[in-house]
Amino acid sequence: MLKNIFDIERLIHSTKSSIACIIGILLTYWIGYPASQWVVISIVVVMCAQIYVGSVKQKAFLRFLGTLIGCLFAAITLALVGENKLAMIATIAISTFIFSYLAISMENFGYAATLGAATTAIILLGQNPTLSFALQRFLEISFGVLIAALVSQFILPIHASSHLRRSQAKTLEQLRNYYLATLMPSESSSPTEDHDVLNENIVRSLAKQRQLAKESASEPLGTNFDPQHFVQSLNCERDILRSITFMHTALSHIKKIDKIFNKQPGSHAFNETIIQSLNTLVKAIESNEEQESHIHTPSLYLLKEELQKNIESPSREELIYVDGFLFSAEVLTKSLARLARLYNVKVYETT
Predict the structure, then answer these.
(1) Among residues 257, 103, 108, which one has the least CA distance to residue 184?
(2) Could you tell me the pTM of the whole model?
(3) What is the pLDDT of residue 33?
(4) So where are the chain's domains?
(5) Sign of torsion, CA 283 287 288 293?
(6) What are the tens digits of pLDDT across the range 11-41?
(7) Residues 153-186: tens digit of each pLDDT
(8) What is the mean pLDDT of the chain?
(9) End-to-end CA distance of the chain
């Protein structure tokens, strides 16, 4: 389902990119720009690999900024020394050094800095390196950037916020599978899948959410993204991941735990309630609509009683891990409850 939606959006975005190029070509013909290829190149560079309105806006701004700074470098050189070859070579070398240094040290500015160096070189090494040529290049690239931004925003816009919600639902699915694989291996659909691989996939999903959130925040129109709500949701997902990881670690240090966990009534009820809660949250987040869904937070009383009574002659280390396991289980249940309330899912506590 999600793959089909994304394929449709890719088709829409590719069509929009073509439309933007056509608009750019027609407008440059109408205005009379002699080098319309730079308008089209700017549209292609800004739009082709950026499907969301927010990402196109970010790319457009950085390309505009890099072009502006590069043109200023070239224009100042041309204004002071004219077409002096030695001065132009020195300017290209200095600008490349500065922009390269900034591109490496400033992650968000890297693309703009690269374009700044490239623009300086393109203008000064052109066949007609004059102030009017620098201004013309700046206007052409800026024109292309503007067209890309407007088409992305106003023609069938694709917002990162809609993908962010799908990514959140996918992350919860991964957390459910991770719980099954680490704490309920007999019921996991992929028992051979490595725990570390599952963990790394979840970490990547969380990183993707942060990127989508950043792009959602750059979309002033057509979205109601709430940064505070996202941060709270992300923190809940992180706490769930940490809790499951430590619960698995703690159980691996307790002898004969396989005879207790999953096989005793309290442990089984705890596991089933956690899985059901995660499944409910996945559906609630995917639907993005008000619905009468609810979750139950499992009681830790029976789980604690079973672990403490059924471990024969526990060592001091095992007792520490039992306490750590119970603490992590409590963090897990509280994180699930917080996450549910963030998405208006009712929470019923099991006593």
Answers:
(1) 257
(2) 0.78
(3) 65
(4) 2-154, 160-349
(5) negative
(6) 898 999 999 999 988 888 887 766 668 888 8
(7) 888 888 888 888 889 999 999 999 999 888 887 6
(8) 84
(9) 38
Cβ pair 141, 67 in contact under 8 A? yes
Residue-wise pLDDT for 51-76, tens only, equals 888 888 888 898 899 899 989 988 88
229-237 long-range CB contacts below 8 Å, 24 or more apart? Answer: 229/342, 230/164, 232/338, 232/342, 233/168, 233/339, 233/342, 233/343, 234/206, 234/209, 234/210, 236/335, 236/336, 236/338, 236/339, 236/342, 237/168, 237/171, 237/172, 237/175, 237/206, 237/209, 237/335, 237/339
Alpha-helix runs per DSSP H in the chain: 2-31, 37-47, 53-81, 85-105, 110-124, 131-154, 160-183, 195-217, 227-251, 265-287, 301-310, 316-342
Token pair belonging to 50: 């950026």
Identify the residue whose tokens are 């027609």.
26
Count the Cβ atoms, other than its own, within 10 Å of residue 132. Answer: 9
**204: number of Cβ within 10 Å:** 12
Contact 219, 52 (CB under 8 A): yes
Q: Has residue 314 got a pLDDT over 80? A: no
Residue 168 in tokens: 């959140």
- Looking at domain 160-349, its CATH architecture is Up-down Bundle (1.20)
